[in-house]
Amino acid sequence: MVTQDAVLDALRAVKDPDAQQDIVSLGLIRDLTIADSQVTFTLAFTTQSPASKATMHSMASRAVGRVPGVSKVQVKMGSGQPARPAQAPHAHGHGQAQPRPEDFIPEVKQTIAVSSGKGGVGKSTVTVNLAVALRLAGGAVGIIDSDVYGPDIPLMLGTRGRPGMFDNRIIPVEAHGMKMMSIGLLVNDKEPLVWRGPMIHSFIQQMLKDVNWGALDYLVFDMPPGTGDAQLSLSQVIPLSGVVMVTTPQEVALLDVRKAIAMFQKLNVPILGIVENMSYFVAPDTGKRYSIFGEGGGKKLADEYGVPLLAQVPLDPATRQAGDEGTPITMRAPDSAQARAFRELAASVRRRLDELGELRPLPKIG
Ligand SMILES: Nc1ncnc2c1ncn2[C@@H]1O[C@H](COP(=O)(O)OP(=O)(O)OP(=O)(O)O)[C@@H](O)[C@H]1O
Ligand SMILES: [Mg+2]
Fold first, then answer.
1. Per-residue model confidence (pLDDT) at position 193
2. Residue 332 pLDDT
3. How far is CA 366 from CA 129, 262, 351, in A?
4. 14, 123, 257, 295: most buried, per Cβ within 10 A?
5. What are the counts of helices (DSSP H) followed by strands (DSSP E) for the chain?
6. How many CA atoms lie within 13 A of 32 on its CB side?
7. For helices 50-65 and 197-209, angle between their N-to-C axes, nearest 10 degrees
8. Sequence-ordered alpha helix ranges (H) in the chain
């Protein structure tokens, strides 16, 4: 039997390197639960540096892992005021203290993640084209490339510059009238990066806190494939307005996307809807329509979860080429079927966000 005392005793051996006091006395341990041999708790950080947070996270996890009888330790990173006695439940909070988005990005109205359980289905392509279409509809748009494993957004937007610094804050780069940040702008292409959970968490927090985004209507996040630390961290750091799930039509893709939907549902992130990418191909010579990856997957998922099918985007070599060359198709060929599909997507996303209610209601005029 693992007891709470045994776990807390182990945690008392871990010191906050900044405060030089143990993390239990500092009141950083929240939501400690012990289920059989599995221990879960949240480290409610306050003003610690990202490096200290990462150190404490791994030391706490290791310390509890060594308690006899413990088989699994899950340490979440939260944030909060120290020594606050009780916690008010929060809509996105899972019972842990959460910073409000106001604290990080006070001037950003909507935050949209583009995700999929599956790799290579077109998340990054959808991200940049959705962003461009939102921009063309008059919105101020920012993009965060959260795909730390394969940051493709700089290439897809044709940006090469390094972000600047002003007043100790990072100035995002500008691309096609949008603001953008990516780890790809900061590191050498050829350097392999090994990311661990806490590093991803700090990176995402920094992208929000230390980047001067200014006033934005939409901040769009390109997510890495899978259901890993980046998705978890992002939904823990800010309450997302919603997530757009990308799939291709075939059954094998749907399996992974279902897992990702389940994860976002667990994290209380609203599912804005489904984008079916590579839906069909229209032969340019004959005009004949081919369903290369099968048919109906997007609709099936949408019906299954009771969310809208936001758009069906055709498979089209020019879309890939536009991405490779740094000008999204919605911008390069505004009259194409692809551009139309992405504009429809943007319109559906806006409608859906309205329906779900804005993250922070704006004062009504009139
Ligand atoms: N509708 C489309 N028609 C043609 N090519 C496409 C389409 N959508 C995406 N592609 C191409 O398919 C490849 C994969 O797309 P993309 O990088 O957007 O996927 P992803 O889901 O972000 O991948 P990853 O999981 O690796 O991040 C890219 O070369 C892209 O240009
Ligand atoms: Mg990608």
1. 72
2. 96
3. 34, 40, 21
4. 123
5. 12, 17
6. 16
7. 150
8. 4-11, 50-65, 101-104, 123-136, 153-157, 197-209, 229-237, 251-266, 297-305, 317-325, 329-332, 337-356
Beta strand segments in 146-223, E: 164-166, 169-171, 173-175, 178-182, 216-222
Name the closest-CA residue to atom 1, ligand 1: 315
For 90-141, write each residue's pLDDT tens digit.
444 344 444 555 568 889 999 999 999 899 999 999 999 999 999 999 999 9
The position carrying tokens 């990173």 is: 77
Q: How many CB atoms lie within 10 A of CB 152?
A: 19
Euclidean distance between the first and final Cα of the chain, in Å? 62
Residue 314 CA, closest ligand 1 atom number: 1
DSSP 39-68: EEEEEEE-S--HHHHHHHHHHHHHHHHTST
Query: What is the C-alpha to C-alpha distance for residues 236 and 260, in angstroms, rounded to an integer?
Result: 16
Q: What is the CA angle 144-218-152, rounded to 5?
A: 25
Residue type, 8: L
Q: Which of 37-51, 185-199, 291-305, 331-345 has the lowest mean pLDDT?
A: 185-199
Which residues lie with the beta carbon below 6 Å from any ligand 1 atom? 119-125, 147, 150, 152, 225, 277-278, 313, 315-316, 319-320, 323
- Ligand 1 mean position, distance from CA 128 (Å): 11
- Positive or negative: CA dihedral 284, 253, 308, 238: negative
Question: Is the pLDDT at 299 greater than 80, yes or no?
Answer: yes
More confident residue, 252 or 88: 252
**Ligand 1 atom closest to residue 121's alpha carbon, by position in its atom list:** 21
- 201: its two tokens: 């968490």
The two tokens of residue 75 are 């340490």
SS3 labels along 286-298: CCCEECCCCCCHH
How would residue 81 be classed by pLDDT, with cut points 50, 70 and 90?
low
